[in-house]
Amino acid sequence: MNRIQGKRVLITGASAGIGEACARAFHARGAALELVARREERLQHLKDELSEGGDAPVHIHALDVRNREEINRMVEELRSEDRMPEVLVNNAGLVRGLAKLHEADPDTFDEVIDTNVKGLLYLTRALLPSMVERNQGHVVNLGSIAGRMVYPGGNVYNATKFAVRALTHATNVDLVGTRVRASTIDPGAVETEFSLVRFRGDEERAAQVYQGFDPLGPEDVADAICYVVNAPQHVNIQEMLIMPTDQRNPYVRYRDED
User: Fold this and answer.
1) Which residue spans within the chain are E strands per DSSP?
2) 10 Å Cβ neighbour count for 202?
3) Around Cβ 256, how many Cβ atoms within 10 Å?
4) What is the pLDDT of residue 200?
5) How far is the C-alpha of 64 from the C-alpha of 13, rounded, in Å?
6) Measuring CA to CA, which residue among 142, 145, 158, 143 is closest to residue 98?
7) Which one, of 200, 17, 39, lies nearest residue 107 by Cα?
8) pLDDT along the chain (258 residues), means of 10
9) CA-to-CA distance for 213 and 61, rounded, in angstroms?
10) I need a labelling partner for 169 at 20 to 30 A (CA). Which of 49, 50, 64, 258 fits?
11) Quick one: which of 35, 33, 80 has its CA closest to 57?
């Protein structure tokens, strides 16, 4: 049964990777979309492509989730046009480098925390009241296996993903007595622009992360998110860990050396 048909879904980080895959997956299931990212040209291209392949409306918003004023302006627009979403996918996130904590650039702390944690909080705080008022809605946070087990050089990124997991569970506690749900999807290795951003455009180094094994693709994670959102109203899948078969935890993965 398709319970996504006709819902309005807001997706952050929608210009690439898992966010773009979510846009395609939800649109294919008949959802109206509100797509958020910084890169307006890529959002416009995605909107044009999706609009050619279906009747569900697609709207785009070029903004940075770290900017609370921009978020509040967008939400006011959505409210005034009766387009408040029933589903929020907090996907926007990033990481920088693999430096040890005592050697890392403190400027990256702000960038990673502001995007991965505060951006998620800003969007959730802005949109959740309308879900509670309607007594219907779903917040899906993109976590990571990094929020379950730390790894060398992960430090601040690990901390943000542990925070995402904690916030998801805390949100569920706060929402008890309502029909509004919260979930975290925690993937292992996913081949996207993630490593390219981590290594600041170093394509060779980014490619080595996925060399010799089959990682998840963005579409795999998008399918998992749709599965969670599509669950019956009385079912709340609070967390899901999804891994490539070649990876069993951050340290155990099979690599074909041939």
Assistant:
1) 8-12, 32-37, 58-62, 87-90, 137-142, 180-187, 239-242, 247-249, 252-253
2) 12
3) 9
4) 59
5) 9
6) 158
7) 200
8) 97 96 97 97 96 90 97 98 98 89 93 97 98 98 96 94 98 98 96 60 62 89 98 97 92 80
9) 36
10) 64
11) 33
* Phi, psi torsion values for 201, nearest 5 degrees: 90, 5
Supply the pTM of this predicted model. Answer: 0.93
Residue 157 designated active-site: yes
Q: What residues contact 212, with CB distance under 8 A and at least 6 apart? A: 255, 256, 257
Distance CA 171, CA 257 (A): 44
Query: Count H helices, E strands: the chain?
Result: 9, 9
Through-space distance between the first and last CA atoms of the chain, rounded to whole angstroms: 43
Sheet containing 8-12: give its strands across.
Answer: 58-62, 32-37, 8-12, 87-90, 137-142, 180-187, 239-242
Say what the pLDDT of residue 194 is. 58
